[in-house]
Amino acid sequence: MTPSKQQYRYLAGVPRGNKMVFLSWRLLKEYDPDTPFDVERRQGRDGNWQRVNDQPITDSTNFLDTTPQADSYQYRVVTPDGGVSETIEVDSGAPATLVALSIPMNPDDEIDTMGIALGDIYNDGKMGYIIRAARAGTIWILAFDHDGKSLWEFDTKMPHISEWRMLHVPVLCWDINGDGRSEVVFRRDRQGRKTPPHEQTSPDETVVAVDAQTGQIVWECPMTVVNPRVNMTVGHLRGMDEPASLVLLDGTYGDVVLTAIAGENGKITWQVKQARPAGHNLDIADIDGDGIQEIICGGICYNGDGTIRWEAEPFGHTDISKPARIDPNREGLQIWYAVESGNPGVYFVDNRGRTIFSEPFRHAHYGWIARHTTEVPGLQPHTAEDARYEYGQEEIAPKMRQLQHNPIFLPDGTHWSNLTDWQRKNFVPVHWDAGPEVVFIIRKENKRIVRFFKNGEIEDLPDAKLPESGHYGRNLTCADVMGDFRENIVALDTDQHRLMVLLNPTLCNVRGYSPFEDFEYRHDRSQHGSGYYIYLSPPDTAVNRR
Predict the structure, then answer these.
(1) β-bridge partners, 389
(2) pLDDT category, 159, cuts 50, 70, 90?
(3) Considering the chain, what percentage of its residues have pLDDT values greater than 90?
């Protein structure tokens, strides 16, 4: 493939104080790992471009520039074949910051911090942002492009009432009909209600698909669910070359109903009743590598046509579940379950539904699947246990003592490490730095990013103090949307009422391709807007790691 002369390189820059500017860009998949880059700068929009690096940059895709004076400068990146990146503007006189993009929000809106959906708005590889907001008593869907431009707003007329919660107005962005354009899909009520019966849905509710760029309706179909708790996901149930399908999950704690809807026209293709509880998220993944994605709903795996492929051993409500490549020595994907009721515990299940190992838990309700260490191949799941107590004999009377049981598991069922109760409540994983291992956002107290060691100790990463007014929830959106291959943090600033995209402002001598080149990563990060999102480490895409 011959690269075009004008290229989108996801170039991003932030001021670092003392007239310095940090720049970060992407190594595109069609370029060799050792491609040299030059950085050019100009003062004002009519000035001459000047190269600012002494030697071509070959070991990284970032650069720290010191400008002649504190002023606003334009930057671009060029390659020997004549490729020229987009142009960005950075004020070198501004205070140092991690905020690479700031999108002002309506100060009267209550913004959902549970999940910001990502999507290819312009169908050019640039991720845009789909946000749920409460305005004047109803839930709205807001769309912004990669650069922060407001594109459209849609009133779902779904009521914003505490019992209702935005979580059950799921939203996703994907090319569902195979026409090469992305759509945004969500739940709406055509008539609107002020006091909904929370025991059932309204007959006027629909599923609507709109064009991601314009907000114009592509198709609309009636909702088939009756339970207010609704999850929704998207996948290629008829093959990767066929249009995608939507799958709705009706219910959580008891018997549930699954409904598959054809992405090209909104028609129901199948519906099954499941006499077994589900979870707070619905998973779709190609667990066996045959080019057709399967559905994981609680302890049951369905084929793309709605028939049951397998059923795991008996357990109840799965608070979380996640298919992933946890053990590379096993075929396909495995599924990690955290079960809240009915034989509660964690379960590691292979792609045929067989339990590899399990461990009883009192209440396992949160976790992630990440690369904590390279000592063993694959990924290491973490699940925290809530409030299991044991009795200890004290001098005067028996007294309950809470156990600290928040392990990081290895694929063989042993524990690599154990988080403290404070760590499991405050940690949010992200691949922020250039290492293959995950690091952690401290989300509540002295907000910053730290590295975790096997012995339980942590250390602060350099230049990783986060904006204190940012809301860094457990379902935080962490994905590589701009800059090099390191992940960004997409968060809401509750004080300044803005959406922020944060960028790692430190130099590194590692370069890699974006994990968004990987379909599994791209599909996984599309699931932020529906149910509980369980963080999954990206593939290690570094090309010059030593």
Answers:
(1) 402
(2) confident
(3) 77
